[in-house]
Amino acid sequence: MVSIDSLTERDREEWEGLTRRFHAHWAGRPGRPATEVDDEGYERTWRRLVDGEEIRGICARRDGEMVGIAHYLFHAAVWGAGRCYLAELFVEPRARRRGIATEMIRWVARDAERHGTPRLYWNTEIDAEARSLYDRVAVFQGYILYNYSRAATTATT
Question: Where does the record place the N-acetyltransferase domain (predicted)?
Fold first, then answer.
């Protein structure tokens, strides 16, 4: 049985272990810098998550074990209601393809609705394995994501 809920103080140790595995999962992939977070960075992010003001976090448990995490935030929009950005979603590889990520996305969507930010969005790599899930639960809008870096822009001028 799977349960999903907001992160609480008692989740700290399991959350960090799962988050470190999430970072390791993405480290070294082509075009992706390794995500190196020191202990202080994990502590700072944890405080922000459980305070629930800037960013929010949820976890999925299967038979009592944490197998998934999601981090998200609400923000204003220039036109219309605010938005909810799903910044990170990770399910342990051994727990995938059991509907856990789908339920986590739906949980975040309901929380967004409750907070007056009905539009939920996220980004992913074009060839991400998870796109088969995303294409079932959402609509690909065709946007391309750019990340501005001062070093990148000054190198080309």
Answer: 2-157
